[in-house]
Amino acid sequence: MRSSGSKLWILMITAFIDMVGLLMVLPLLPFYAKSLGQGGLMVGLLVSSFAVAQLLTAPMWGRMSDAYGRRPALLVGLTASAIAYVIFGYALELPHPLFFLFLCRIVQGAGGGTVSVIQAYVADATQPGERAKALGWLSAATNAGVAIGPVLGSLTHAWGPRGPGLFAAALCVGNIVFAWKYLDESRDMQEAAQSKADPTQRSRSRDAVLHVVTHSAEPASRLIWIYAIAMGAFSGVMSMLALYLAKRFGVTEKTIGFFFAYTGIISVVTRALILGKMVDRFGEIRLSRFGSTLLAIGIAAMAFTKPITDPARVVAMLGGFLPASAVVVLPYLPLALAVALLPLGTAFTFPCVTAMLSHVIPSRERGLYMGVQQTFGGAARVIFPVVFGILFDLALPLPFLLSASLVVFTIYLGLGMESYVRPKTDTVASTV
Fold it and tell me: Which fold has domain 1-183?
């Protein structure tokens, strides 16, 4: 059997390729919808349909992986993605193209529910004290896919409308072969067999979701709420980022990509090079609070960051110390800092919260509850952008102030978690 380190690298490669395929087709959706005479509402529905399918299927994938293993669940999920990419490639040529675009997104989202399985795999294959670092490395790999995927999508679109979808499907098939050949099972299948044989040891997805709602004070429930609220706050802000930058700083569709690339690079570097050292020094609980604090500060700062309306006056006030061209650029410095705190905060928060969740739930239900976490996070990603969009239209600072307040509230929810989350050097699954 492979070591836990080699398993993690294989899983990272699998997750990276999967994310490249996803991001090859996602940026093209608005253009496909526009070519069909659709507007922003339909684009929003197409985007959110993925999240809806993902949040509905995530617990099912987690439960399946608990019972039958992580590897088969991942392979089935990747197969669903390959089918979705083929549908996307031919959607515009079929009789009802909009229907097939929605079908593509729903099938893709259902396959994307395996995010919880990947997280459970990491928890199976690593020691408790190493899980936050391993999850950080995994998210760094997926963020690298986010940076590369759109470029490949644009390049393959030169082959025609089929190009991106079929290339992504081929990439996904190669990924399936790679995972089938090199990715070992991480689940303790003896424990899985015992769990299947004893129905009292298995929790249904619906029961687990209701348990989080009705027993919110329990450690696992609190961690899931922390994850969901922070994820919703962050997703809501990111959904408004382009509108915010356009309204306050005149950013256009030609320049918005640089801001997303800026946050993506910071996210990859932080998760790959800094997160592990920070976990070793501060521990998961303290680091998650530090990350939430950075995230709240960055979001709140965006509400108050504005360009200088009269550069000449500021130059005169400074006695000509700085030229007008330099004064105009000055507001972009706090903006750059505020935006940078978003990927920094999320990099320190989400991997640590997920790692802590793996500590407080038994291994036989690890996939299930990580699926439930993704369900709550997915619901937040669907709801918060809509709410924040309404608030943005009322007053620009409102969504940012609400988001920052919600993130601060998650810090309060995590108080006292030290008594429950005490990583110890336990025995990793027997397949390691």
Answer: Growth Hormone; Chain: A; (1.20.1250)
Closest CA to 76 of 99, 91, 57, 89: 57
pLDDT in tens, 246-276: 778 777 655 665 676 677 788 888 887 888 8
**Domains of the chain by residue range:** 1-183, 207-417
CATH no. for 207-417: 1.20.1250.20
Percent composition of the chain: helix, strand, coil (DSSP 3-state, to 5) = 85, 0, 15
Q: How many CA atoms does the CB half-sphere of 177 hold within 13 Å?
A: 6
pTM over 0.85: no
Q: Residue 353 corresponds to which amino acid?
A: V
- DSSP states of 236-290: HHHHHHHHHHHHHH---TTTHHHHHHHHHHHHHHIIIIIHHHHHHHHHHHHHHHH
What is the spatial distance between Cα 147 and Cα 138, in angstroms, rounded to a whole number? Answer: 15
Per-residue pLDDT reduced to its tens digit, 199-233: 544 456 678 888 888 888 888 899 999 999 999 89
